[in-house]
Write a structure and sequence with these properties.
- With 177 residues, this protein is of the alpha+beta class.
- It contains 1 helix and 13 strands.
- The chain has one helix spanning 2-36; strands at 43-47, 54-56, 63-64, 69-74, 78-79, 84-86, 91-101, 109-115, 118-125, 133-143, 148-153, 159-161, 168-176.
- Strands 3, 5, 6, 8, 9 and 11 form a 6-stranded antiparallel β-sheet that branches.
C-alpha cells in the first residue's frame, strides 16, 4: 500500500507541474495573439537572382520562374527552389510581379501569373527601338489550402535581371476566409 501511495504522490506532483506549464503556455499564446491581432501572417517578397546578371530563358516549354533572392517569407509559404507559393491558409490574397527585358536577344518577354496551372494575368514586351522595357501586374484572388501561385516564363521567351532586382514576385494574405 505504501508503494502505491508513493506512486500517487509522484503522479500528483507531475500533474501539478504540467498544469503550471500549460498555464504559462496559454498565457504566452494569448500574448502572441494580442501582438498579431490573431490574424495569421503570410507575406513573401523575392527577386529573380541572388547575384550576377543575365537572361533567364528561353526554354522549350512554359517554365515557373524561381525567384532565388528572398527578401521576406513570413509563414514560409513561398519555396525559392520551385518558385511556387502554396497557400497554407484559405483566404483572400494579393500578388504582384514585375518583368524586365534588356532586349539584347531577339525573343520577346512574356510572363504570366498562374494559379493551379490557370493563367490569371500576364505582362508582355516586344523588342522595338528602345533598349529595355519593364512591366508589372497584380491581382487579388481567393485561395484554398493547397492552391499554388507562381510566375511562369512563357516558352521561347526571356527575362533579364542583375543586382538591381528588376524581376520580383510578392504576395500576402489580406484576410483569412
Amino acid at each position: 500500500m505504501g508503494e502505491l501511495g508513493e506512486k500517487v504522490a509522484n503522479l500528483s506532483e507531475k500533474i501539478t507541474f504540467l498544469e503550471t506549464r500549460l498555464q504559462h503556455a496559454e498565457k504566452e499564446v494569448l500574448e502572441l495573439r494580442s501582438l498579431t491581432g490573431s490574424t495569421p501572417q503570410v507575406v513573401f517578397s523575392a527577386a529573380l537572382r541572388n547575384s550576377g546578371s543575365g537572361n533567364t530563358g528561353p526554354f522549350n516549354t512554359a517554365t515557373p520562374l524561381q525567384y532565388a533572392k528572398v527578401f521576406s517569407n513570413t509563414g514560409n509559404s513561398y519555396n525559392p527552389s520551385t518558385g511556387i507559393f502554396t497557400a497554407m491558409i484559405s483566404g483572400m490574397y494579393f500578388f504582384r510581379f514585375s518583368m524586365f527585358n534588356n532586349l539584347a536577344p531577339t525573343p520577346n518577354s512574356v510572363v504570366s501569373l498562374m494559379k493551379n496551372n490557370e493563367r490569371l494575368t500576364s505582362v508582355w514586351d516586344t523588342n522595338e527601338t528602345d533598349s529595355n522595357d519593364m512591366g508589372s501586374n497584380a491581382v487579388v484572388i481567393p485561395l484554398k489550402v493547397g492552391d499554388n501561385v507562381y510566375v511562369q516564363l512563357e516558352r521561347n521567351r526571356v527575362v533579364y535581371d542583375d543586382g538591381m532586382n528588376y524581376n520580383t514576385f510578392s504576395g500576402f494574405l489580406l484576410f483569412p476566409m
